[in-house]
TrEMBL record:
<dbReference type="GO" id="GO:0016787">
    <property type="term" value="F:hydrolase activity"/>
</dbReference>
<keyword id="KW-1003">Cell membrane</keyword>
<comment type="function">
    <text>Produces ATP from ADP in the presence of a proton gradient across the membrane. The gamma chain is believed to be important in regulating ATPase activity and the flow of protons through the CF(0) complex.</text>
</comment>
<keyword id="KW-0472">Membrane</keyword>
<dbReference type="InterPro" id="IPR000131">
    <property type="entry name" value="ATP_synth_F1_gsu"/>
</dbReference>
<dbReference type="GO" id="GO:0046933">
    <property type="term" value="F:proton-transporting ATP synthase activity, rotational mechanism"/>
</dbReference>
<keyword id="KW-0375">Hydrogen ion transport</keyword>
<dbReference type="GO" id="GO:0005524">
    <property type="term" value="F:ATP binding"/>
</dbReference>
<keyword id="KW-0139">CF(1)</keyword>
<dbReference type="GO" id="GO:0005886">
    <property type="term" value="C:plasma membrane"/>
</dbReference>
<keyword id="KW-0813">Transport</keyword>
<dbReference type="Pfam" id="PF00231">
    <property type="entry name" value="ATP-synt"/>
</dbReference>
<dbReference type="InterPro" id="IPR023632">
    <property type="entry name" value="ATP_synth_F1_gsu_CS"/>
</dbReference>
<comment type="subunit">
    <text>F-type ATPases have 2 components, CF(1) - the catalytic core - and CF(0) - the membrane proton channel. CF(1) has five subunits: alpha(3), beta(3), gamma(1), delta(1), epsilon(1). CF(0) has three main subunits: a, b and c.</text>
</comment>
<keyword id="KW-0406">Ion transport</keyword>
<dbReference type="InterPro" id="IPR035968">
    <property type="entry name" value="ATP_synth_F1_ATPase_gsu"/>
</dbReference>
<comment type="similarity">
    <text>Belongs to the ATPase gamma chain family.</text>
</comment>
């Protein structure tokens, strides 16, 4: 059994660690609120641009490179969104595992995978395993802004529009020689963590480009009532676009894709803070239990020490008494 001094030293050490984990838990909790506020602030713009794109899609030919699967596609870009810091439980591990599954699936289908990484933890993970990546961005995983994510958003869009047969211009964050154009790709996939609740964050794979149009079919009512004003009250108005719908959709599609990718960064930021809060709360709870166990052991050791001291005193007093009687 450890000595009483060692036990007290361990208790002080665990209490110091507990203060750190508790502080990290409180910081992560406050950052979750800020991240959720940013998601809510971006929601009105996201809703409106989605509604506009739906109206344009219904009036256009949908003949745009961002909306078409390419024949003989051979290069696929994968963006892995990780965190800049650790102490967030299995957050990064789950992302890397999901990314590995996606990359294997793409390679099995004959694609050449081009990896991009966001977050210092992702950069360190792939560097340690000597797995290549052609671009990395970091420093904003917990608080992404439109400006911070500009280069990664624009490069993925430009690279897709260039296709694997063309090149996209150099942007900061790419690993190639500065100023040299880089080869494009035929599809873009994003691996990120979706924030579902304070306790649940789920790694997701999303195909960013090409966009998969969703065609909805609607059954029209039959009979005389169909022409009644009351039955047609829910009919959507017919819009006229100037310039034409195809021109507008070509102009808005990059903004729509860019907004979708930024929303994933916001989701990942909220998920990172939630994962860190859960991990730090578990660490704090474990530290509390460990202090209780160590305190109980220390009390038992102290009690045994006191009992031994009392026994020695009684024994010594008895020996003195016996020696006095013999004299």
């Amino acid at each position: 059994m450890a000595s009483l001094r060692e036990l007290r030293s361990r208790i002080r050490s665990v209490n110091s660690t507990k203060k750190i984990t508790k502080a990290q838990e409180l910081i992560a909790t406050s950052r979750i609120t800020k991240a959720q506020a940013k998601v809510e602030a971006a929601e009105p713009y996201a809703t409106e641009i989605h509604n506009v794109m739906e109206r344009l899609a219904s009036a256009s030919s949908l003949d745009h490179p961002m909306l078409r699967e390419r024949e003989n596609a051979k290069r696929a870009a994968v963006l892995v969104i990780s965190s800049d810091r650790g102490m967030c439980g299995g957050y990064n591990y789950n992302i890397f595992k999901k990314a590995a599954e996606l990359e294997k699936n793409l390679e099995d289908h004959g694609y050449e995978v081009v990896r991009y990484v966001s977050g210092n933890k992702g950069v360190g993970y792939y560097n340690f395993r000597s797995e290549p990546f052609v671009g990395s961005w970091s420093g904003f995983s917990q608080d992404p802004s439109w400006k911070d994510t500009h280069n990664v958003r624009r490069h993925l869009i430009d690279g897709f529009l260039a296709s694997s047969e063309g090149t996209a211009k150099y942007r900061p964050g790419l690993t190639g020689p500065e100023g040299k154009a880089v080869q494009g790709f035929d599809s873009v996939h994003v691996v990120y963590t979706e924030f579902e609740s304070m306790l649940t964050q789920t790694p997701r794979v999303h195909q960013l480009l090409p966009i998969e149009p969703v065609i909805e079919s609607e059954e029209l009512p039959k009979g005389e009532d169909y022409l009644d004003a009351s039955s047609s009250s829910d009919a959507e108005p017919d819009y006229e676009f100037e310039p034409d719908a195809d021109t507008l959709i070509a102009s808005l599609l990059p903004k729509y894709v860019s907004r979708s990718l930024f929303a994933m960064f916001l989701e990942a930021a909220a998920s990172e803070s939630a994962s860190r809060r859960n991990a730090m709360k578990s660490a704090t709870d474990n530290a509390t239990e460990l202090v209780k166990d160590l305190s109980r052991i220390a009390n038992q050791a102290r009690q045994a020490q006191i009992t031994q001291e009392i026994t020695e005193i009684v024994g010594g007093a008895g020996a003195l008494a016996e020696s006095g009687e013999s004299d």
